[in-house]
Predict the 3D structure of the following.
Amino acid sequence: MVSRALLFEFGFWLVIILVLLSFGYFTEETAKIELVFLKDEQLWYLLLLIPIYFLYFVNLRRMNHRLGKIPITLQSSVFQPILPNKSLLHFLLFRSFLVFLVLAMAQPSMGTKRERSRTKTLELVICLDVSNSMNTKDMRGGSSRLVSAKRALNQLVNQFTGEKVGVCVFASGAYVQLPMTSDYSAAKLFIDEIETSMFSNQGTNIKAALQTANTMFTKSKTSKGILLITDGENHEDDPSAIIDSIRDKNIEIAILGIGSTNGGPVPTDPLRPELGYKRNGRGQLVVSRMNPNLIRELASKSKGTAAISAEGFPDLKPILTQINRMKRSKGQEQEFDVAKNQYQIPLFASLICGLLLITGTNWLKRRNR
């Protein structure tokens, strides 16, 4: 009986190996019909067969040993007959059920199929205010507005998965700090290097920032948006006209107002705190306050989202919500090849073995009553 069980097992696994060989599982050839397992880590569950084999063969030897001690006349009259062939069949069905189930879990894939999909992408231009007032340390924790803004931007970039980002810096004027890219490591590097010393002439020219941002987008048919980060101080030209132009192009605007309404003094040189703070012509300390009314007015004109924060690590949830909404518009339809999953075949075989096992067990129970 043991030798027969071993023979069945040898034949079963030989067939499995030959099938895998025929479909190139062990060799990197026949790329179009090569068999691969998309979740091959699931195959480790086949190790569960080891204790099952051990328990079955130990029980089989014990059963044969007991049967050998019982006289043949008693085997057929007093004791219920032992059916080793049916026991072997039950074991083989249970083993096959488990093996095919594990193979289905490993998701065998063979060949490819053509899929069509519309990708949801976004081009986002970040306009960051680098006027001297952004050096004011009125954020919770003692950080400056600019430092907190850069933390927020790094946090934002970490959330990206396929979007393109560009960076524009502005004060009295504006220029491109980083052209549109999907290289997030480069984006964070450029963001970290931003300082207020990039402009010698100061101010907060939001109109110039939006005009520059408007030129940074590519011609691809994707969603486009602008994230404006400013404390709203020293507003110069009225940006209403450029906002209307941007809206006509279906470009959305989100605004993050950064700073506190209580404000704080503006450092003369953020890198040299010993120089003190800026003073006006009358010798009075210059106090910079964030302008929430301007932030809300700009958001209202652009029909975008406004968020205001004085936190050292600004909460970007409202901004992220609008950015995710921007991505809802669909880009161009693309075609690509994907692996053709064949998990249905071993799953069907596993179900058949399971049904035969349950049916056979119930039939034996009814027969032995």
Summary: The CA atoms of residues 46 and 112 lie 27 Å apart.
